[in-house]
């Protein structure tokens, strides 16, 4: 039975500053480094055959710390922008509270927590889903079907899209799902490539 491990990158500087980050290439904080180390410790007993990550530094840095913690820096790594965070377009770099004052709480909440509403110049969660899932089906699912264990280190919304797919969630259900930084989520697949267990 293959295992899929999902990890959201450790806290980034713009997470800390409550800014829309999206595709901006912002590194992790000291706390993010600690979160990545804890993720590595949590995965210590697991066999990992290959790792995937986005092209953004916060995910790549988190992955390198996890692999160092595992003592397995030579695991094959595949980087692809298909796993990047959702683009927030013109909102990127803006403080979320200040943006709410400018556009109104309801509008900002809609941009952040709707499935198919696009922020100015950015992507909806639906758009993110439509790039993450074809990539997963083409590049990652075949490895899992062969029995390989896969680690993906990515972002809140790219992982939310993948979780929606794996758990057959509705747009309303996935919008309620919070994904903590640096805490591995494990999916175990049966021989028919159905999720037989999720932890936690």
From TrEMBL:
<dbReference type="GO" id="GO:0006096">
    <property type="term" value="P:glycolytic process"/>
</dbReference>
<keyword id="KW-0413">Isomerase</keyword>
<dbReference type="InterPro" id="IPR005952">
    <property type="entry name" value="Phosphogly_mut1"/>
</dbReference>
<feature type="binding site">
    <location>
        <begin position="156"/>
        <end position="157"/>
    </location>
    <ligand>
        <name>substrate</name>
    </ligand>
</feature>
<dbReference type="GO" id="GO:0006094">
    <property type="term" value="P:gluconeogenesis"/>
</dbReference>
<feature type="binding site">
    <location>
        <position position="96"/>
    </location>
    <ligand>
        <name>substrate</name>
    </ligand>
</feature>
<keyword id="KW-0324">Glycolysis</keyword>
<feature type="active site" description="Proton donor/acceptor">
    <location>
        <position position="85"/>
    </location>
</feature>
<protein>
    <recommendedName>
        <fullName>2,3-bisphosphoglycerate-dependent phosphoglycerate mutase</fullName>
        <ecNumber>5.4.2.11</ecNumber>
    </recommendedName>
</protein>
<keyword id="KW-0312">Gluconeogenesis</keyword>
<comment type="function">
    <text>Catalyzes the interconversion of 2-phosphoglycerate and 3-phosphoglycerate.</text>
</comment>
<dbReference type="GO" id="GO:0004619">
    <property type="term" value="F:phosphoglycerate mutase activity"/>
</dbReference>
<comment type="similarity">
    <text>Belongs to the phosphoglycerate mutase family. BPG-dependent PGAM subfamily.</text>
</comment>
<feature type="site" description="Transition state stabilizer">
    <location>
        <position position="155"/>
    </location>
</feature>
<feature type="binding site">
    <location>
        <begin position="112"/>
        <end position="113"/>
    </location>
    <ligand>
        <name>substrate</name>
    </ligand>
</feature>
<feature type="binding site">
    <location>
        <begin position="21"/>
        <end position="22"/>
    </location>
    <ligand>
        <name>substrate</name>
    </ligand>
</feature>
<dbReference type="InterPro" id="IPR013078">
    <property type="entry name" value="His_Pase_superF_clade-1"/>
</dbReference>
<comment type="pathway">
    <text>Carbohydrate degradation; glycolysis; pyruvate from D-glyceraldehyde 3-phosphate: step 3/5.</text>
</comment>
<dbReference type="InterPro" id="IPR029033">
    <property type="entry name" value="His_PPase_superfam"/>
</dbReference>
<dbReference type="InterPro" id="IPR001345">
    <property type="entry name" value="PG/BPGM_mutase_AS"/>
</dbReference>
<feature type="binding site">
    <location>
        <position position="58"/>
    </location>
    <ligand>
        <name>substrate</name>
    </ligand>
</feature>
<feature type="active site" description="Tele-phosphohistidine intermediate">
    <location>
        <position position="9"/>
    </location>
</feature>
<feature type="binding site">
    <location>
        <begin position="85"/>
        <end position="88"/>
    </location>
    <ligand>
        <name>substrate</name>
    </ligand>
</feature>
<feature type="binding site">
    <location>
        <begin position="8"/>
        <end position="15"/>
    </location>
    <ligand>
        <name>substrate</name>
    </ligand>
</feature>
<dbReference type="Pfam" id="PF00300">
    <property type="entry name" value="His_Phos_1"/>
</dbReference>
